[in-house]
Amino acid sequence: MALCVTGVVTAGLVLAQAWLLSRSVSSIFATHRMDGVGRWAALLALVFCGRGLTSWATEWLSHRASAAVKSQLRGDLLRARLARPTDSSTPSGTLITLITTGLDALDGFYSKYLPQLVLAVIVPVVLAVAIGTRDVVSVVIIAVTIPLIPLFMALIGWRTEAAVRKRFRVQTRLANHFADLMSGLPTLQVFGRARAQLEGLRRTEEANRTETMRTLRISFLSSFALELLATLSVALVAVTIGFRVAAGGMDLRTSLFILILAPEVYLPVREVGARFHDSADGMAAAEAAFAVIDRAQGSPSPAPSTGAAPAPRATHSPKTHSPDTSLSAGAVDLSSPRDVPVALEDLRHTYPDSPAPALDGLDLRIEPGSLVALAGHSGGGKTTALDCLMGFLRPDSGRILVGDVDLVGASQDTWRAWRRRLAYVSQDPAMVRGSLADNLRLGAAGATDEQLRDALDRCGGHSLALDKRVDDDAEGLSAGERRRVAMARALLRVELGGAGMLVLDEPTAGLDDAAEARVLETVRGTGASVLVVSHRAAVLEGADAVVTLEAHS
């Protein structure tokens, strides 16, 4: 609305400028005197100042709108990522590019393209009406030629849009390639293949350069075409006016008024075409951002890092539990898994572009305080089942029951409340930069040093000091130490943080038999319900029930 107001004010100031210039110049030619020139100059100066002030207000409004939209989109992207942390359909490099330079390109849309689009709708119409009151021939020429500009702009814009999207894909591929190289650099160094990756990086960089130059060529070509069309249109108006002035069919004041307004009619439309290229990058980034957000708001997200998994089928099907009620939208009152059973009933999930379902009729039941193990070949859908249980994936069908409450289709608030009841240890436990104590307190913020020490000792971390520093990517800790810290953190969440269920994904991988026995004893000692994914014989033998997932092609 504010931009519409500035557009109307701009049109009025352009009319005032044309009227003052035509009136003053024609008066001088008619009288051959300079009387009143100072007054005309002062009025023109006020008009010029008004146009400058209006231009500043338009830019200020558009920049403010751009900042608000970018902030909102960045927040939505981060919330979408937090809602589905296991979704690998958007690699980290792509997400980083999107949140930073990608969304920054929206400045071109909001601060350049959108204001010009508003002016292109308002100013030409107002000025054409003003010209039509003075000369019908000129307004007919304008009415015939001005639609050609958006027509050519659309034709060129379609080509530009395709080129920009391709360039954005290449740019994100370059970002992902670089991020992958950085994360895998130690392995590449060990195998002596670090320098061999330079050629692939150069090819990706060259592809990015090529696509950028192709987009710029289209941009410059379209600008030339629009400028040429607008110039020829103004020239056509000027030539017809010149003939009529020479023949005495039009006075000087009217001809000057129309000649001054004619370029101003085409200018906003011409600028829209030029600014379209400024907006193309931002629109491509916005579409990618909306795709990530839309996936997090309901549609099943694509496969985690294991890729499309063949369909498993449970060889053990515990007794099912029929719910009495379903969860209403917004409800967050959930019983603790210590008090009620948790059941997955006929759970099915298929990843996009996968020929077979990852889960096909999975049934399992976890009684309060029991330990249920998920076993089967790698890629059989065990991690997918955990992701569905924690709300990171939405199953295609089936039910996830906590007592009598079905979580499938529940609100995000309900899923957050459910996750507060869980303590999770992944295959690759994440650590934050800081001390071991900082990482342990992620499970229970109010835990004392004595409680941290006790939990760590019970998980076999006697040799680990609480003040030991942990760098990015858990540098400074071995794989086994990371698992011990993660298990201790989960114990603190169960004992002090209110969680009633442990969800463990290969918690004893990399541990020796003695350490594994201590971890299992500690887990049993919590009294919490446990769902564990494992291939280890000791874990499967100690479980109350084992559900084996068999892969099917």
In round numbers, the mean pLDDT is: 79
CATH superfamily descriptor of the largest domain: ABC transporter type 1, transmembrane domain
Q: Mind telling me the C-alpha Rg?
A: 34 Å
Strand content: 5-15%
Low-confidence stretches: 299-331
Pfam family, one: ABC_membrane
GO molecular function, one term: ATP binding
GO cellular component, one term: plasma membrane
Transmembrane segments: 40-61, 113-131, 137-158, 224-246
What tags apply to this protein structure?
553 residues; alpha/beta; ABC transporter transmembrane region fold; Rossmann fold; 2 domains; five-stranded parallel beta sheet; four-stranded antiparallel beta sheet; 16 helices; elongated; transmembrane; ABC-type transporter activity
Descriptive report:
The structure is a single chain. The protein is an alpha/beta fold and 553 residues long. The chain has two domains: 2-296, ABC transporter transmembrane region fold (Up-down Bundle), CATH 1.20.1560; 342-549, P-loop containing nucleotide triphosphate hydrolases (Rossmann fold). The protein is 60% helix and 10% strand. It has 16 helices and eleven strands. It has helices spanning 2-31, 37-83, 92-104, 106-132, 136-145, 148-183, 185-190, 197-246, 252-296, 382-389, 412-419, 436-440, 449-458, 479-495, 513-525, 537-542; strands at 342-349, 359-366, 371-376, 397-402, 405-406, 422-425, 434-435, 469-470, 501-505, 529-533, 545-549. The strands form three sheets. It has a five-stranded parallel sheet with strand order 6-9-10-3-11. Helix 2 runs antiparallel to helix 4 (106-132) and helix 4 packs antiparallel against helix 5 (136-145). The longest helix has 50 residues, at 197-246. It is elongated, with a radius of gyration of 34 Å. The relative contact order is 0.09.
